[in-house]
UniProtKB/TrEMBL annotation:
Record keywords, A-Z: Membrane, Transmembrane, Transmembrane helix
Residues covered by the DUF7670 domain: 2-100
Transmembrane segments: 12-29, 35-55, 60-76, 82-102
Transmembrane in keyword set: yes
Top-rank lineage group of the source organism: Bacteria
Repressor keyword on record: no
Name of the protein this chain belongs to: DUF7670 domain-containing protein
Stored InterPro entries: DUF7670
Length: 106
């Protein structure tokens, strides 16, 4: 039971985090070139989807990518997007914990 919870918890959190980030792309519908702006604003979502797919199979690599993405976001925004980087750090750590402790005992 606990193994199942730890297996699914980071995956569900990463899907929810990706959905939350994708909400920010919907503020472009008032602009004249809304479709191009929507595609540009969905780039972070597509990156998060790619990282989630990688983390689904290889938890440690995906966890490292979530940590790296959170760290790069923190540095590139000069610590202004700290609230958005906390979920990435938590998800990355959870994936690494699952990959290290639960997958190694097979």
């Amino acid at each position: 039971m606990l193994k199942t919870v730890f297996f699914w918890f980071p995956r569900i959190l990463s899907i929810l985090f990706t959905a939350f980030i994708s909400i920010f792309a919907f503020d472009v519908f008032g602009s004249p070139q809304w479709f191009l702006a929507l595609l540009i604003h969905l780039i972070p979502t597509s990156i998060l989807i790619s990282i989630t797919v990688i983390a689904w199979k290889k938890e440690i690599v995906g966890g490292f990518l979530f940590l790296l993405g959170g760290f790069l976001t923190l540095i590139l925004t000069h610590y202004e997007a700290f609230v958005l980087t906390i979920p990435a750090f938590v998800i990355g750590l959870l994936f690494m914990i699952v990959g290290h402790f639960f997958k190694a005992k097979k």
